[in-house]
Amino acid sequence: MSRIGKNPVIVPDGVTVEVKGQDVKVKGKLGELTLTVHEAVSVKLEEGGKQVVLAPLSEERKLRMLWPTFRNHIKNMVVGVSEGYTKNLDIQGVGYRANLQGSTLVLQLGYSHDIQYAVPSDIKVAVDKQTKISISGIDKQKVGQVAAEIISYRPPEPYKGKGIRYEGQQILRKEGKKK
């Protein structure tokens, strides 16, 4: 039995969860998210809408793996609509900087041209001091995906440490050439 899957998802005050068949709809102060749960996992709302309980419909290995996965997806939705998610990025390197022009993030990363990244409509991006980027939204997967796409334009390199990295990320540095 899954240690993660057997725990119910606690719904905090200010968040409402609706379950219709396999569709789960979560509403909160920050927005609304929906998810369609796999047909091999049952979803129930218990204790007057204060807990979401999931259970596998059979004991197949694949279905036992899906059960805690969907439980965590629902938990992430509940946290997202009540608190939201944020990823912070640091830009390091001489001449590397970022600007926000409308809904486009303009990155100057040492290439011959500026990189223009169109920010999705449900994600908020803020630039502080031209070297700090803050990405926030209610969907954990989308926030992480946007952060990963921005980092992929110039990942940190191991010799000088230049590039875009997550805030607080340690880069394993290599020693350069020796004479």
TrEMBL record:
Gene name of this polypeptide: rplF
GO MF assignments: rRNA binding; structural constituent of ribosome
Record domain Large ribosomal subunit protein uL6 alpha-beta: where: 11-84, 93-166
Alphabetized Pfam families for the sequence: Ribosomal_L6
Organism: Micavibrio aeruginosavorus (strain ARL-13)
Origin superkingdom: Bacteria
Name this protein carries in UniProt: Large ribosomal subunit protein uL6
Subunit comment: Part of the 50S ribosomal subunit.
Known function: This protein binds to the 23S rRNA, and is important in its secondary structure. It is located near the subunit interface in the base of the L7/L12 stalk, and near the tRNA binding site of the peptidyltransferase center.
Keywords from the UniProt entry: Ribonucleoprotein, Ribosomal protein, RNA-binding, rRNA-binding
GO CC, any one term: cytosolic large ribosomal subunit
GO BP terms, alphabetized: cytoplasmic translation
Keyword Ribosomal protein: yes
HAMAP family assigned to the protein according to its UniProt record, in alphabetical order: Ribosomal_uL6_B (MF_01365_B)
Family in the record: Belongs to the universal ribosomal protein uL6 family.
